[in-house]
Amino acid sequence: xxxxxxxxxxxxxxTDMMGIVYHANYLxxxxxxxxxxxxxQGFPYRQLETDGYRIPVLEVSAKYLRPALYDDTLTIxxxxxxxxxxxxxxxxxxxxxxxxxxxxxxxxxxxxxTGRPTRPPAAFVARMNEVFR
Length: 133
Description:
The chain has 133 residues and is α+β, with helices and mostly antiparallel strands. It has a single domain, classed as Hotdog Thioesterase (Thiol Ester Dehydrase, Chain A, Roll), CATH 3.10.129.10. Helix content is 23%, strand content 34%. The protein has three helices and five strands. A hairpin with a 2-residue loop joins strand 4 and strand 5. The longest helix is centred in the first third of the chain and has 15 residues. The protein starts with a strand and ends with a helix.
């Protein structure tokens, strides 16, 4: 299993008139945690792009349990629990301290610059083999 933690502070622009985070704003937070997880594993997204890879979203889901509020400091936990092959599935938890506010997941595939599915880079495969023995 691979796990990463990213922190965000809720900006006023991310909230509605009641000071509650608008539901679509959780997806960029998922992205923040996902790109941090990849960076921590040695695969910064910018380098993947330079090397000719894209990792588009195939599917995304979020479940909202409690509202996040203006100026909250949140921790977004991204987790990969299964060895990625051609697709990568990440789970997410949005936490305010010890309180679980939302959960979600996203599924991605490696593609080349033309958008065609492709195998992940050899170094990525080697790292995943190492982590998921």
